[in-house]
Amino acid sequence: MLRAHHFSGFAAGPKLIVLGAVHGNETAGTRGIERVLAELDGGRWRIDRGSLTLVPVTNPLAYDKGTRSGERNLNRRLLPTATPRVYEDRIANTLCPWLAAHDVLLDLHSFRSPGRPFVMRGPQDNRGLLEPFAHALAEGRLAEHLGPARIVDGWMSAYAQGAARRRARGLPDADPSYGIGTTEYMRAQGGYGVTLECGQHDDPAGPEVAYRAIRQAVALLRLSDLPLAPPAAPLQRLSLVTVIDREHEGDRFAKTWTSFDALRAGDLIATRADGTRVCAEHDGHIVFPDPNAMPGHEWFYLAETAR
After folding, report:
1. Which pTM was predicted?
2. What structural domains does the chain harbor?
């Protein structure tokens, strides 16, 4: 069973959906949503225009287990299917119509290593085949107002490049559609949305980051008369440019990396099992480093200052 809490105003307005615990061990969003629910149920404020749908736990199996996934990663290849095989397929068959029925998505996550919260947004407006989009201005305003001072784009294009390399080597996860998660599906249905990474999984400040972001989104979309705080300043804008896979269990990082650690061209990032050095080709940042990545899967991303 998937539970949602829906609030509708009497005046016309956008339809916002907020997700928590798409990954079961990422609970900052769940706690932030629960706080907002308590305020709405207690009459501290209300939805006057449009609608707000809150989903505190999007993956109940993974949440109950305290793990990232139940039977597979819900935030990869998020598509309806006529032949559901695992638990997350059944969630997708319920969740995807919910997303399609809304205009805007705020998906609340957290990450494994230490670091500051950041927002993942989508591409600029385009008519390309990979991720056509027409709401970049509105999505950018949403990303800017959620609270964090770091905004990252380029997920789908970087993932597609990695998928092409895996496909050439006959490896799994070589289909670009495997990179489709909640926000990518939302954009494909004509809406827009962002992912807010609220900080490290157990950071006690994470629920506050999520709570503030929900209220900011509600205020920005004018679903309620809540006050709207200005964007953080200065904003750092980065673009993911490539993903590097781990090829062998003997591949090792040169040091313990944290997401958004700065890199200078030529810096040693890692060494392959055969001794090959993996170095930064340009100045930038390392993102999502995973020392426990399985061979043939994403190991880390590289980001550069957005143009």
Report:
1. 0.94
2. 5-220 (3.40.630.10), 237-305 (2.40.50.100)
